[in-house]
Amino acid sequence: MSVKKGKGPIYDPGLCRCCGIMKKCRVLNVEYDFMGVKEVYSDIMVDCFGLLLSHLEGKPTERLVCATCVMRLRDAHSFRQQVIRCEEAFLQIRMSEDPQKSESYSGIKVTVVKEEVYEPQPCSPTSPTGDTADTADDNHLNYASSDDDRPLLLKRKSEDINSKAEINNQPIDNIKKVKLDQKDVPTVKMINKRLPMSKVQQLMRERDPSYKIETNILTIVENSYVCPFKCRHNNLLCYYCGEFFHDPQLLRQHTAEVHHPRKFKVCNHRNIMVKLDMTRIDCRLCDVKIDTLDDFKLHITDVHNKIFYLDIKDVVLPFRLSKDELKCAKCDMVFPYFHALNKHMNQHYNNFVCETCGLGFVDKGRLGMHQLRHEIGDFPCEICGKVFKSDQNKEIHIDRVHRKRARVFCPKCDVRLMTHQQKLKHLVEVHGEEPLSFPCNLCDKVFDARRTLTTHRRKEHLRDFRYECSYCGHKFFTKFALNNHLPTHTGERNFKCKVCEKSYPRMKTLKDHMRIHTNDRRYRCHVCGLAFIQNCSLKGHMKSQHPEYG
Questions:
Q1: The domain spanning residue 509 has which CATH number?
Q2: In this predicted structure, what is the pLDDT of residue 165?
C-alpha cells in the first residue's frame, strides 16, 4: 500500500532494489527531504559509485530502496565528501609551503578517478605480437574521469605509453606502473617531503562547519560561568545528569558544584541549539566581569588567545533565568512560563525558514514539527470533501459528523459517547467520579480539560495571535478566524443558498440563513416567550419591547 507523506512517497511493503528484502521503502529516483537537505538516491549512487541502475522509469514499485540501504548510502556519500575535503586541505598546505608553485596549484581541485585495468588482448594473425591497429588504440590506458564537470585528483600521462614498442619491451605488470605527468600534477614531489601533520589536521577539521560550531560552544562553556540546561514540560533539567529543578538558582548551584565544564559534550545528533543560562557570564580564567556574550568573545580571544570562530553563527540560545520573572535576554519581554519564552526565541533566531508560510525557527527540529501542519492528506471524505492524512482519521470523521455514530466507550458500562469530553461528563454524572479540574495559574479560571486551559493561556495571557491578515495587518488566534475575516477585503461570497440562491461570504452566515427556510426558531424571549430565527432579531425585540431587561 502506498502512503504519501510530506517528505515523499513511502511504500509499505516494497521490494528493495539494493538488498532484495521486503520492507518499508522509498523510490530511488524521487526527491526526498532529509534534515532540510534534498536528496535523490539514484543520483547519490551515480555520484559515489558510478552505478546507473536500470528501469528507473518504470512502475514506482519496481524502483524502491529501504531505509537501511538509504542510511548506508548516506554514510558512503559523507565519507566521499570527507576524503575530498581532506585532500583539498592537503594540497592547500603544500601550496603554502611552496610559494613559487602556489600559482600553478591554485587551479587544482579534487575528485575521485576511476582507473581502467589493462588486460592483454589475444594474438591476431596480422601481428606476431598480437596487436592490430585497432587493438593498439584500445589498449591505451585512460585514467581521466569521464565526467567533465569533476576535476581530477590524479591524471595519468596518456601519450605514447601504450605504443607497440612499450608493450613489446615491458612485461604486463610494468605497464600498469605508468609515470605521472609532473607538469600537470604538482603533488608528486610533495609526497617525499615531511608534512607538518598538526597543521594539516587542523586545516582539515576547520573545513567542517560542525567542528567550528562545537569548538565555539566548548569555548563558551569551559571558560565562562554560563549554565547549560535542558527543558521538558516547563521544567528545567541539568544538562549533564537530567535532574529536575524548579528554581533556576538551584540549577546553577547544582551545575557548578557537581559537574565540571570540561565534561560538557555537544549533542550534535539532536540538531538543536544549546540552551545557556547567561545570568553570570564572567571569565573563569581571570577576574574580569562580563555582561554580554559578544564581550566574552572579544575577551577570550584577545586576552587569553582562545580559538573562537567569529565567521560562524551562534548556535546557543541565551537565557537569563529567574524564579520570579522569565524575561527574554534579547528584548526584555516577560513571559508567564518557560515554554512560552522558549517558543518566543524563534522570533530572534530565524535559522530555518518554512518555505510554505515563511515562519522562522531556531533549529531543524522545530521546523520539522511545524511543517507537519502543512502536510496534505490523501484520504478525502466522499460526503463533504474534507481531506485527512490517514484512512483512520477519515473514518472517525465520517462516524462522528455524518453517521452520528458514537466511538468512545465508557470504561464502567456499555454506553458509547461521541467525544472524550462527553465520556468525562458521563463518568462524573452517572458513576460519581470526581471531575477533573485544570486551574489557570495566571487568573482564577478553572477548566475541565487541559486542552481548553492551553488555549486559554495562549489566547488571553500570551496573546499568541500568529495568523496575520496580509491586507490590514490585523492578527487572529486561529486560521479559521483569519479566513472569516478575509472576505471583508476580497468581497468573495462563495457560500450560496440552494433554495433562494442568495450568497454569503461565510459558512456560518449561510447556516443562520438556512434556518429561515426550515423555520428553526431557536432564540426565545424569556419574558414573553416569543421565538425568533436569528439571535439579532431577539436582541432587537428585547431592546424595543423589554428595555428594562436590557
A1: 3.30.160.60
A2: 37
Q: Which structural domain, as residue segments, surrounds residue 102?
A: 1-108
> Are residues 56 and 71 both part of a single domain?
yes
Consecutive H or E run containing 475: strand 475-476
Grid coordinates given for 483: 479566513
How wide is the angle at C-alpha 483 spanned by C-alphas 399 and 4, nearest 5°? Answer: 55
The DSSP code sequence of 247-312 is: SHHHHHHHHHHH--GGG----GGG--PEEEE-S---BSSSS----SHHHHHHHHHHTS-----TTS
Considering 65, 91, 108, which residue would you say is the last residue of a domain?
A: 108
Residues 240 and 310 in one domain: yes
Would you state the cell numbers that stand for residue 75, as one nine-digit string? 554514510
What's the pLDDT at 192? 38
Strand, coil or helix: what is 204? Answer: helix
Q: Which amino acid is at 330?
A: K
Cα separation, 367 vs 359, whole angstroms? 9
**27 & 80 share domain:** yes
Let me know whether 86 and 158 are in one domain.
no
pTM of the model: 0.49
**Three-state DSSP class for residue 239:** coil
* The pLDDT value given to residue 319: 92
Q: Scanning the structure block, which residue is given the C-alpha cell 587551479? A: 107
Identify whether 448 is part of a domain.
no
Which of 282, 292, 284 minimizes the C-alpha distance to 314? 292
Query: Measured between alpha carbons, how far is 407 from 417 in angstroms, rounded to an integer?
Result: 6
SS3 annotation, 427-443 = HHHCCCCCCCCEECCCC
Q: For residue 328, tell me if it sits in a domain.
A: yes
Radius of gyration of the chain (CA): 35
Last residue of a domain, one of 108, 129, 147: 108
CA distances in angstroms from 382 to 377, 398, 402, 534, listed in the order given? 14, 9, 11, 31
Same-domain status, 90 and 167: no
DSSP state of 180: B
Count of domains forming the chain: 5
Mean pLDDT by 10 residues, the chain (550 residues): 55 86 87 81 89 85 88 89 82 67 50 43 41 39 38 35 40 39 39 55 76 88 92 84 89 91 73 85 90 90 89 85 85 81 86 77 81 74 81 85 85 85 87 86 84 84 82 86 86 86 86 87 90 88 86
